[in-house]
Amino acid sequence: MEKKIVTLFGATGSLGLKIAQEVIAQGAHVRAVVRTTSNRKNLENIGVTEFITGDLMDPASLKNALSVSPKADAVIASAAGYTGHTKGDSPKTDTEGYRNIADAAKEANIPRFVLISVLECDKAAEVPHFYHKYQTERYLQKIGQPFIALRPGTFLDQTDDFVYPKVQKGIFPAFIPGVTMGMIYTADLARYAAMAALRLPESAVNTTIDVGWDRPASGDDLAAAFSAVLGRPIIAKPAFPSFVANVIMPIIGLFKENIKDLVAMIRWIKKGIYISSDTQRQKELFLDLPTVEEAVRRYCKDRKLI
Q1: In the chain, fewer beta carbons within 10 Å around the N or the C end?
Q2: Domain 5-152+185-212+275-288 adopts which CATH fold?
């Protein structure tokens, strides 16, 4: 039997690289869509051999990428223009760019489109980069492109992992102190994305799936989990001073859209609604619903803290 093919957008990002690893681990072939200027070395090091040049803001390049024969069995879209981690990314990547991918997938008759969305994004109209994901979900539905939208919460490990050096010093940096929120370990999200593309039943298509842990967690919850796993005291402290969050960042946000978006996100999360409304569906479909402690233990093992 020939390997299934997954076309991956956002492959050079931190999450994209992990998704590529999981697709390969699950026995499929990765077709990575990259810019001409993208660094392919990390992808090549994990065994990715096929690269297609494309840009989310160039519809013709996407049409070409998805018309390559043999046709892909699925598309996974993990690009994130809001973060600006890659030169050329912008909020338009998350709106026009994603509509361009959706249109190209529909025209190419791709059987399944896996979208990395955001937990409770349909309720976050005041947070642009959250709500853009909901708009993409709606657009996929509108044009009739079969899709599965995975809705993770906050990542335990960010692209620039600020948790690791702090934990080594006995501190867990709480992004929003005192607030519980849905969270996920990136390695798990990557595995779920590969499974959504390759293994989930047709009954899961055209739906959204919350993914994360068995319960929401606060900074104190995570400090307690790290303490238990490492066998030494870890104390939760604010990731940045309240003055920065409440005064400096809003002022900067007057001039920088991404900071304005970040401030809006913090205010929205403080409402306490950034939590999964259905954790059991994840367990039914992925046969996996990690506890906070399990996720923290794997995080510590992966970083050789234990």
Answers
A1: N
A2: Rossmann fold (3.40.50)
**Is 246:177 a contact under the CB 8 Å cutoff?**
no
Distance linking the first and last C-alpha atoms of the chain:
41
Question: What strand order describes the sheet that includes 50-53?
Answer: 50-53, 29-34, 5-9, 74-77, 113-116, 147-152, 207-211
Kind plus residue range of the DSSP H or E element containing 264: helix 257-269
**Contact indicator for 145, 105 with CB cutoff of 8 Å:** yes
Say if CB 105 and CB 119 are below 8 A apart: no
Nearest to 73 by CA among 28, 38, 138, 116: 28
The pLDDT of 139-156, averaged and rounded, is 97
Residue with tokens 């955001």: 118
Check whether 200 has a pLDDT greater than 80.
Answer: yes
Q: Give the pLDDT mean for 128-142.
A: 97
**∠ Cα 28 289 204 (to 5°):** 55
Q: What is the pLDDT of residue 42?
A: 95
The pLDDT score that the predictor gives to residue 162 is: 86
Which pTM was predicted?
A: 0.94
Predicted local confidence at residue 163, as pLDDT: 92
- Residue in 61, 9, 68, 205 with CA at minimum distance from that of residue 20: 9
Tokens standing for residue 39: 């660094």
pLDDT, position 10 = 94
Neighbouring C-alpha atoms within 13 Å toward the C-beta of 20: 28
Contact 90, 261 (CB under 8 A): no
Q: What is the spatial distance between Cα 10 and Cα 62, in angstroms, rounded to a whole number?
A: 13
Give yes or no for a contact between 30 and 96, defined as CB atoms under 8 angstroms apart: no
Residue located via tokens 């989310």: 56
How much helix, strand and coil, in percent to the nearest 5, is found in the chain? 45, 15, 40
CA distance 253 to 91: 15
- The Cα-based distances of 55 to 14, 58, 65 in angstroms read 18, 5, 10
